[in-house]
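Record type: ASSEMBLY
Status: queued
Input:
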Amino acid sequence: MNGARVEFRGLRRRFGSTVALDGLDLTVEPGELIALLGPSGCGKTTALRCLAGFEQPDEGEVLVDGADITRVPANRRDAGMVFQSYSLFPNLNARDNVGFGMRVRKTPAARRHARAQELLELVGLPDVGGRYPHQLSGGQQQRVALARALALEPRVLLLDEPLSALDAKVRVTLREEIRRLQLSLGITTIFVTHDQEEALSMADRVAVLRDGRLEQVADPATLYDRPATPFVAEFVGAMNHLPGLLSGDQVTVLGQTLPVEGPRPAGPEADVLVRPEAVLVVPDGEGEGMVVVSSFRGSTARLRVRLGDGAEVLADVPGHDSARLAPGTAVRVRLVERPVLVSARTATGVTAAVPEPDAVA
Amino acid sequence: MASLTPQVTTPAVPGTAPARPGRPRRPRVWRGVVLLLAAVYFLVPLIASFVFTVKAPDQGFSLDAYGEIFSAEGFAGSLLLSLGLGAATIVIVLLLTLPAVVAVRLGAPRWRPVLEVVCTLPLVVPPITFVAGISTVLRWGPDYLASTPFYQTIIAVQDPGFPIVLVLAYVVLALPFAYRSLDAGLGAIDVRTLSEAARNLGASWPHVLLRVIVPNMRSAMAGASFLTLALVLGEFTIARLLSFQTFPVWIYTISGAHAQVSVAVSVFSLLITWLLLLALSSAGARQRSGS
Amino acid sequence: MGDSRTGSKSRWAVVPLLVFAVIVFGVPMLVLLGGTFTREGTPSAANLTESLQGAYLTSLIGSVKISALVAVLGGVLGTFLAQAVVTSRFRALREGVLTASGVLANFGGVPLAFAWIATLGNSGVVTTTLGLGDHGWSLYNFWGLTLVYLYFSVPLMVLTVVPALDGLRPQWREAAQNNGASTWQFWRYVGVPVLTPALLGGVILLFGGAFAAYATAQAMVGSSVPLVTLKIADALTGNVLIGHENVALALSLDMIVVAGLVMAVYLPLRRRSARWLR
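Status: finished
Output:
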């Protein structure tokens, strides 16, 4: 199987008054796994359905290996899709579900069954061929759905939040397996998700969508370390916005002077973007800060620290330090010495897409 | 067959677009034709019946037929009889079914299959065969039981003023509907937790049943009662073959002499069914929004 | 320990219902069975034999024929109507049709017959308006009765099938398309097989309803269409040879057997459908 190059060009789609896609441009390289990440309603699923042929864009086109497939009916497209849940045909057992596409193409039964068995083995379910969907667990159902999507050897694999209905543990195992399989098959894969952790851990590149537009597309590390827009910074991980003063290549923040990387805004006043794990917290009776909230997460603990000027900052500290950094502890706050991103001045504070630790005192 | 459909709701999934059919035009034409034919078939008899009842040979239009309903001989008597039978049937069917359904849910789940069978059989067995059996019992009974107190009983249940035998038969016919309605109602509330909480607070079993479970089942019981009432008000086979003058039998009897009146009553009874079922479905809706 | 005590006590709550059913339902059924095999006081299969001969057999076949026709026609028409409603974007249409179906499915018996007599009977409104009488139209035959039975059967089918059609997930159609299936192939390999239990179940319900119907036929056609329910009623009201009274019981037993066989097909089907369309 060889992956295809997929291009979305100026894709627009509206449903009544809501705009699902507002001029989406995106190119997916052959053999790449790209994650479409964004909040619900950002158009990521619509983009996928345009590629699968279940939606027609109002404007723009979808190209696979340079050929425009925008008007090709869904059942003639070369893209296997795995749906969110419950997509297995309930009247067919796992083997016949996987072999469905071959049956439609009139493949002889013996070859069909042999191939279906191969695929079931590929997804780690060699023994469930005779079982019906209602006899399979959620994770098994999605594996069978994956096998079915791969059965016709498509050049593109489409995954529409395939893990969202599963238990946390199954989710992690299955995503690792999907990635392993995708790498060994070299199939171009588009993965729609609203779970940033999923996107960052699986994808070669992550495309962040917002209101039907592409905000940023980059490899996970770049996306995390150098978000192109405040929205991306907010959506991927947590981010502190701390007030800083620019001077040349340097910025002064919390009394420290750090080198600046990336573009600089015009004025001397700027927001310095700092991830919680780049904030160091040390207990210090003389310190200006105070731990307000602490939430223990096992290997780390996330603290909300109030600074002397009333601003708050999120900090991730090693889990074993959480005991001596209990709420109420006076602390000193420092930033890790490394180049930082700055952006034009907005409201000071913390933005995060992850749940805040406020609940835990 | 008075099974109101469970309200089938289609949850709107945020973020996913409403699936638009690939070729929107053809299905719409097809759908329009089907709906139009259905509308003609189902509306014409209703409209025609009404026209039939208000069409007077000389004046053209008259509502006399509807007035005549009330003055026709036997109207009040048969309607009152049917309503009385309905009330008695409702009381007995609820008294028998409610404790059984609660017991099966709480303490004796092994009896559920038995109850299911008992409450399905009356649906399978056609009413006319049931009445064949009943009339045979009533015919033979006096011969075999002449010397026992049962003789008096057999005579008493056939009192034309209030035929208890009809109530008994109607209870059997109503069992499936009452059972299903009450079982569904119980399924919607967590009886076990409710009754355990009440027991934990020191309530006795009768107290639990009357003060905790019954109030939470009000609309299911109303549903069962409405269905039973509709059934009794429409039942013809058993009443006619046992020769009792209930409301449907009365409509049939007067049809020979007063064709217009009998059609007028038919329209009238359809309206009553409609109202009963509307009341039923709105009671159901109230419970859903209430809980 | 508390549980087992509750169990043994709550069993008693089931007893009144069972006792009632055994006496009021069981005794007549036993008497029916006994009577079927008794002629003039002695055990005999003569009633059963007679019930399966001549005019009795004709009426039994007549009932099965009209019920089967109503079931199949009602099944097909009801499914189309249900599909038209389910695929419609108008919620009000859907709610309206479902409510109307709930009412019309219960609109049987004598009133239904009179409504149709007023419409298409010999002096019915439509008959006289369109002058159908001159073209030899009559409502009081096999086809007329079928037309009338459909009036409550189609709505009943709609009520049975709509939940099943709602249970057809859009993902199945899309997954089928994604695997290269055309619309026709989707229905052939997935849609129809998934719906079959529900459809068959509905058809069987319609059969049972038409088979047991008595009031409508009695009020409409009297005895001009041979139906087993009419024959039983005839025999019960004394219109039968002396000594042959129990033929009515034998006919009833025939009916129960037919209805029982049909139901025996329905129940497992319903279970399967429920599992698929959760």
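Annotation: The domain at 6-225 of chain A is CATH 3.40.50.300 (Rossmann fold).
Annotation: Confidence is low (pLDDT under 50) at residues 351-361 of chain A.
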